[in-house]
Automatic annotation (TrEMBL):
Record field: transmembrane: none
Protein name as it appears in the record: Thioredoxin domain-containing protein
UniProt GO MF annotations: iron-sulfur cluster binding; metal ion binding
PANTHER family linked to this entry: GLUTAREDOXIN FAMILY MEMBER, GLUTAREDOXIN-3
Amino acid sequence: MAPTITNVSSEAAFDAALVSSPQVAAHFWASWCEPCKHMDSVLCELAEDYTQVTFLRVEAEEVSDIAERFGVSAVPYFLLFKNGKVVDKVEGADVAALTACVGQHFRAAPTGQPPGAPAPAASAVEGKPVLTARLQQLIKAAPVVLFMKGTPDTPRCGFSQKVVGLLRQHGAHFNSFDILSDESVRQGLKQYSQWPTYPQLYIDSEFVGGCDVVTELHETGELKDLLDRASHVENTEDARVRKLMNSSDVMLFMKGTPQEPRCGFSRRVVEALNATGELYGSFDILSDEVVRQGLKAITDWPTYPQLLVHGELVGGCDIVTELHTAGELKTTIEEMKSRMQKAA
C-alpha cells in the first residue's frame, strides 16, 4: 500500500489532525519550490516506515494562518508534534536532519505488523556487524550498483524507473538489488549511507545519491564522467565470471545458497549433488546481476541453476535431475573432472 500524506487546506483540518493523532509530522511547502518536491519524496519514504505517524502536507502560502501561527517563514519547513505539542522542527532541505529527527521522536512500525504492535525480539534482528559486511559485499559486487524498488525491467516506483533509464541512456552495466525483497538490507542501507530514500546509486563502492542527485549529475554531465571512470572495471567482468566458473572443480550457480535455496529448481539440484557426496562450490546469482547475466552469455544457457565442472556446463535442473535419477550424476562429474585434468 502506498504511503498516505494528507493535504491540509484549512486551519480547522490541521487542528483536527493534531487532536486525532498523537504523532504528527507536517511539511510546509510551496508548489514553486524545487527543494520541497525532493523533500516530499523523502517524506513519502518515511511515511512507509512510520505508519503510525500522521503525515501532513501544508501549502504555506495557501494556508498562511497555520504558517504564521508556527513561525514558518521559509519552505521547506517541518514540524513534529506529539500529543498536539511541537517537539522538534527542521528548516530547509536537510534530508539527514529530517530523518534523524523523525527517528528520534517516533518509532518505525516493524514490517508486516500493524501500527502499535510490539517490536520483534532483538534476537530476530540481523546483527549489525553481519549486516554491514553483507551490505559491503553487495556494494562491492560491481563497479555500478543500484539499490532500487523492483528490478531494472520491472521498476516498482517512478524514481527507480527514472534512474534505471538514465543509467541505460549512458549504456552503463550495473548490478541492481531489489530492496523490497529484503527488509534488513532496506533498513540497514539507509543507516549505512545516511540516506533515507530509494533508489540509491553506488559507483566504485562510493555512494553517489538518490534520484534527484543522479538526475542533476546527468544534467551537468558529471554522471557520464563517473560512469566512464568505472567502465575500465567493467571490462574485467567477463574475466571475473570465468574465474568464478573455475573457482571450484564442481561449481553450482543457483538462486540462494545450498543451506537456503530460493527456488525449487535450485533445491532439487542441491539435493541431487548432496546425494553424490561430491564437494562443490556455489554462487548465489541473486546477489550479483553482472554474474547472473554474464554466465548466461558464456554458457549459452538461459536459466538457473547451472552446474559446471571445471568451468564446463553440465546442465540445468532437468539434466541434473535426469542424471541423478539414472544413477549417473556422480559418474558424469567424475568423468568430466578426469577428462579435463588430462587435457590440462
